[in-house]
């Protein structure tokens, strides 16, 4: 039987009595980072774990649910699982079966829907050419702009495919997404999107590309289904940290919030998701269509492509980038990395708390990277736990 996630109100009524002995770990956040660590600590190491999330659900940003029409949607935007790590894939396979899925994205440019990442078909259809793979390499070389040292997101693209493709596919999209020109952003942002000289139109090239067969939330439920794991939702950890005994905290929320923004706020880019259901079986040809140059939204994703669900209706999500709102993307600029380094110093000086995950380490991580980071953190914690003495264990509830 699946253990029902606990609501904040359950605290008054029952399980807390049996928990007065305290928890070995207080885990803040029930996303990938928090859930992987909870699972390992409880199932593998026999620790007692309390997982707290201020949202009304588990899964963090990867949470999925059925909408009013009965279509499985991702409320926090489309999440496509892909990894080159066999360890990560094998680990998650303990909690879910998979449905093979290769994501495809088209970009709406000059009145056409063209494959992105840019490949030989993108170039041929945009310019009305008939180049071979070899010729397109020559084409890129002829239009590429020499850049002495690639530093910014603009440098990455113009040095590979020239200014016209940069302007049509990257400049507008990046300006919308980040509210900054690519010339003001680290190279890492656009370096994530490769350029291809073949006809491969898959968005990702990873070895493992698949979606959890019954969705992410079912997978998280299976991870957290253990008698040593208690889950408390709708609860900020600050509300309970001083009166539920715990020995070590694993924190997966924003690192600047943990330290009360003492050096100022770390800049994040946010998104507003506008969900729609349409009375038609299919809305668009592929999982995601990007709109680099038109409209206020960056892209539209249609979930049935991604989940494989069959349904007479279909649900889509529009993404509108925002300066304010939930923290989604750390803004990769040197001054922000510098500000993060100040918080990272304080992290080093907070021995009773381990910081894991995308927000706690102020890094753009994909889901598989967060799983890998959490598994590595577990190994480190185990090493530390072996050395733990009865004395340090008595520091209940302190930071
Ligand atoms: C729009 C979008 C699309 C994405 N698409 C993909 C994709 O296609 N493929 C991919 O691999 N990755 C994708 N990602 C990245 C993916 O979402 C993350 O890698 C992953 O969710 C990070 O897991 P996490 O546990 O570190 O953080 P989160 O999932 O953010 O979990 C942190 C949790 O901590 C909780 N929390 C924070 N503060 C507190 C507090 N004070 N008290 C209690 N709880 C707290 C939050 O409520 C949250 O649930 C995408 C991200 C976004 C924003």
TrEMBL record:
<dbReference type="Pfam" id="PF03275">
    <property type="entry name" value="GLF"/>
</dbReference>
<dbReference type="InterPro" id="IPR015899">
    <property type="entry name" value="UDP-GalPyranose_mutase_C"/>
</dbReference>
<keyword id="KW-0274">FAD</keyword>
<comment type="similarity">
    <text>Belongs to the UDP-galactopyranose/dTDP-fucopyranose mutase family.</text>
</comment>
<dbReference type="GO" id="GO:0008767">
    <property type="term" value="F:UDP-galactopyranose mutase activity"/>
</dbReference>
<dbReference type="Pfam" id="PF13450">
    <property type="entry name" value="NAD_binding_8"/>
</dbReference>
<keyword id="KW-0285">Flavoprotein</keyword>
<dbReference type="GO" id="GO:0005829">
    <property type="term" value="C:cytosol"/>
</dbReference>
<protein>
    <submittedName>
        <fullName>UDP-galactopyranose mutase</fullName>
    </submittedName>
</protein>
<dbReference type="GO" id="GO:0050660">
    <property type="term" value="F:flavin adenine dinucleotide binding"/>
</dbReference>
<dbReference type="InterPro" id="IPR004379">
    <property type="entry name" value="UDP-GALP_mutase"/>
</dbReference>
<feature type="domain" description="UDP-galactopyranose mutase C-terminal">
    <location>
        <begin position="168"/>
        <end position="364"/>
    </location>
</feature>
<keyword id="KW-0413">Isomerase</keyword>
């Amino acid at each position: 039987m699946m253990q029902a996630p606990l609501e904040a109100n359950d605290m008054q009524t029952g399980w807390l009595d049996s928990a007065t002995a305290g928890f070995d770990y207080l885990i803040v956040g029930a996303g990938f980072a928090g859930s992987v660590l909870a699972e390992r600590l409880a199932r593998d190491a026999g620790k007692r774990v309390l997982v707290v999330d201020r949202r009304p659900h588990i899964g963090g940003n990867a949470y999925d649910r059925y909408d009013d029409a009965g279509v499985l949607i991702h409320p926090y935007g489309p999440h496509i699982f892909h990894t080159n790590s066999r360890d990560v894939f094998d680990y998650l396979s303990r909690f879910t079966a998979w449905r093979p899925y290769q994501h495809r994205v088209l970009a709406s440019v000059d009145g056409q829907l063209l494959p992105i990442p840019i490949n030989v078909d993108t170039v041929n259809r945009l310019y009305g050419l008939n180049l071979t793979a070899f010729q397109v390499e020559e084409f890129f070389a002829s239009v590429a702009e020499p850049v002495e040292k690639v530093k910014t997101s603009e440098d990455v693209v113009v040095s590979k495919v020239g200014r016209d493709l940069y302007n049509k596919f990257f400049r507008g999209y990046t300006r919308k997404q980040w509210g900054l020109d690519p010339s003001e952003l680290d190279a890492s942002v656009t370096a994530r999107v490769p350029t291809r000289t073949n006809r491969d139109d898959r968005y990702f090239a990873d070895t493992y590309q698949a979606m959890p067969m019954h969705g992410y939330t079912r997978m998280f439920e299976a991870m957290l289904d253990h008698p040593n794991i208690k889950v408390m939702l709708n609860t900020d950890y600050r509300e309970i940290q001083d009166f539920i005994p715990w020995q070590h905290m694993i924190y997966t929320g924003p690192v600047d919030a943990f330290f009360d923004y003492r050096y100022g706020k770390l800049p994040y880019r946010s998104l507003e998701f506008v969900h729609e259901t349409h009375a038609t079986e299919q809305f668009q040809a592929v999982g995601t269509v990007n709109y680099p140059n038109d409209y206020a939204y960056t892209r539209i994703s249609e979930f049935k492509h991604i989940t494989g669900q069959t349904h007479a209706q279909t649900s889509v999500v529009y993404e509108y980038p925002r300066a304010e709102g939930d923290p989604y993307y750390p803004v990769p600029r040197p001054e922000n990395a510098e500000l993060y380094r100040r918080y990272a110093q304080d992290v080093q000086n907070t021995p009773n708390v381990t910081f894991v995950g995308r927000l706690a380490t102020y890094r753009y991580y994909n889901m598989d990277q967060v799983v890998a980071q959490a598994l590595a953190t577990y190994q480190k914690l185990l090493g530390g736990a072996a050395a733990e003495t009865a004395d340090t264990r008595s520091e209940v509830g302190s930071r």
